[in-house]
Amino acid sequence: MNWLTPYLWPHAQRALLSQFALRDLQSRFRQSFLGLAWLILIPLLTLAVYTLVFRFIFESRWGQESSTMGFAFRLFLGLALFNLVSECLMRAPRIISEQPNLVKKVRFPLAILIWSQLLVALVQCAVALLLLFIGLWWDLGTPPWTILAMPLILIPLMYLILGLSWALAAIGVYIRDTQQIIGLLLSLLLFLSPIFYPLAALPSNWQAWMQLNLLTYWIETARQLVFTQVWPDWGVYLLMCAMSLGIAAFGALVFEKTREGFADVL
Predict the structure, then answer these.
(1) How much is the mean pLDDT over the chain?
(2) Residue 230 gets which letter from DSSP?
(3) Are 87 and 182 in contact (CB under 8 A)?
């Protein structure tokens, strides 16, 4: 199992990883007039549009929450977590094929390309959570300190993303249609996850099916933690963490077993 350690904890490649992540982050906003300000503007503009559509046009409500700001904050947190997942999974199928020069370097640790894109997505998610913290502080007058426990949500979610991304990256080298399929599935996932509505708003038999979507648990748990200061059921939480690690290990195994053929395909 020594081969798995660099996948799950790439400490030995930390310098290389930070270099790639910084380069990736800078490349996204290079020659942009507003530069890194887009990290703030994009989530705020997205929130404004979705709040306008679902709160004022469709007149959606969030359970007992009747205020517009309460609706917007819950929507914002769900979008922040979904965007973290979507950002990584959407790019994963092409991340190896975009770097053929690295594939041909025998000793280059290709798995860190997935870590690199995850770190960039985490920066964007962290900015969104900071904006949420400031907004809640301004609206409520007292900061919801339980938001500081968000790493309990983000760390296992990271490993879930890593596992899926490694598997998709490996498959994407051999099947180029993977990215189009993932784009379609992510569009469906956006509305099949409790982002624009609470899980409790669905009929009980639908809720059982929604739980098959692993993102459902992390979004609902994050909202309980931030908005109602309710800690998760630790038994269920540890089970979900184990599941995330299992998916990470499976994705790493798929990547490890298929990477020898990358150079031949590319």
Answers:
(1) 85
(2) P
(3) no
